[in-house]
């Protein structure tokens, strides 16, 4: 009978050995895939830097504009665009979706150049090759007024630039960010942000306390507020209800600090215009306190106006509208059966 060795003394591979190998590979596969992804992303990052900002942005836009329409998220983008712009024909909707993919590809490639892309010289604002700024006086006011301040923004054009602009103007600002789902991409993006921006706070468990700490010490907090937030308040966005994170409105209500909006417009290639609004006159309730839902509606309406000006520069592939996640309306209680008039008396109710 055959023993533990096969032909010519070669160890025999049993089913148990194959099972053990499969289990080892299964345990190690995420680590192997993670290492491969790190190498791939860093290689693409190196290539983007070698190409230079203009060529990298153009290549990134062309690549994602070509691949994007074949991805599942393209259906989301098309559905969102059709619902937001029912007056547009199919060709216009397709063109806007391609523009959105192009902008996303350009923004991804531009991460490799954030350290040089924002080339604003505060001594000569007109000398920049890439950036023009409107509302620079508001940045100075926020920096010098000795008070805390809040800034909201959206995923428009290259949405990383406002945080770099705040640091350039010497503003003590902390940007709230949501890390990418891919761990390798998250690490690289974090490295780039730390080189070019001020403070950073990752959204998630415990982040609210860190954000309150920023405002408590008179700092400034910036947040992108145009994505779905499950525990948010309901506001209207392009005529449909959505859930939005109410954090900025709650902080404004508690600390009575100014709230500004900031947006980026992509002019052409890697040339951008950045605009900081004056402080918003937020709605208040009967007691004079800032109304949280009303304040978030005003900020969301501002973002909608920005998007309508440049619809091809927003992140339409995000599932912003999720009707199944909206809070259910409370049903009115059924009227009581007609059993006479209930008269309140001391003790048990009497029926006449």
Using the CA coordinates, give the radius of gyration.
27 Å
Determine the fraction of residues in helical runs and give it as a percent range: 40-55%
Uncertain residue ranges: 337-352
Number of helical regions: 11
- Report the average pLDDT across residues: 81
Using the alpha-carbon principal axes, give the shape: globular
Return the domain count: 2
Briefly characterize the structure.
Helices cover 45% and strands 15% of the residues.
Give a quick set of tags describing it:
352 residues, alpha/beta, 2 domains, seven-stranded mixed β-sheet, two-stranded antiparallel sheet, 11 helices
What does this structure look like?
With 352 residues, the protein is of the alpha/beta class. The protein has two domains: 19-109, no CATH class; 120-319. Helices cover 45% and strands 15% of the residues. The protein has a seven-stranded mixed beta sheet with strand order 1-9-8-2-5-3-4, with helices on both faces. A two-stranded antiparallel sheet has the order 6-7. Strands 10-11 form a two-stranded antiparallel ribbon. Strand 3, helix 8 and strand 4 form a beta-alpha-beta unit. Helix 1 packs across helix 2, helix 2 crosses helix 4 (90-110) and helix 3 crosses helix 4. The protein is globular, with a radius of gyration of 27 Å.
């Amino acid at each position: 009978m055959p023993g533990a060795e096969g032909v010519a003394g070669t160890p025999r591979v049993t089913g148990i050995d194959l099972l053990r190998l499969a289990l080892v590979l299964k345990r190690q596969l995420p680590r192997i895939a993670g290492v491969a992804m790190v190498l791939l992303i860093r290689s693409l990052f190196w290539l983007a830097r070698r190409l230079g900002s203009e060529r990298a942005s153009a290549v990134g836009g062309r690549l994602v504009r070509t691949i994007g329409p074949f991805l599942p998220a393209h259906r989301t983008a098309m559905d969102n665009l059709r619902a937001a712009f029912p007056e547009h024909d199919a060709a216009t909707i397709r063109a806007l979706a391609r523009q959105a993919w192009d902008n996303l590809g350009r923004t991804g490639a531009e991460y490799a150049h954030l350290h040089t892309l924002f080339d604003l010289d505060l001594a000569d604002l007109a000398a920049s090759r890439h950036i023009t700024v409107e509302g620079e006086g508001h940045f100075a006011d926020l920096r010098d007024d000795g008070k805390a301040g809040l800034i909201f923004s959206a995923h428009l054009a290259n949405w990383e630039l406002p945080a770099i602009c705040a640091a350039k103007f010497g503003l003590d600002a902390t940007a709230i960010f949501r890390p990418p789902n891919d761990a390798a991409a998250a690490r690289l993006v974090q490295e780039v942000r730390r080189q070019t921006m001020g403070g950073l706070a990752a959204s998630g468990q415990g982040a609210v306390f860190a954000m309150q700490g920023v405002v408590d010490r008179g700092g400034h907090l910036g947040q992108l507020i145009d994505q779905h937030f499950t525990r948010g308040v309901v506001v209207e966005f392009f005529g449909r209800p959505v859930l939005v994170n109410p954090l900025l409105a709650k902080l404004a209500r508690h600390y009575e600090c100014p709230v500004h909006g900031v947006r980026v417009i992509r002019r052409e290639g890697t040339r951008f215009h950045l605009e900081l609004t004056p402080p918003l006159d937020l709605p208040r309730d009967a007691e004079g306190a800032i109304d949280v839902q009303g304040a978030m509606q005003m900020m969301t309406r501002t973002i909608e106006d920005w998007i309508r000006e440049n619809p091809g520069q927003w992140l339409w592939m995000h599932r912003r509208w999720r009707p199944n996640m909206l809070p259910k309306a409370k049903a009115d209680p059924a009227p009581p059966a007609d059993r006479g008039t209930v008269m309140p008396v001391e003790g048990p109710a009497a029926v006449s």
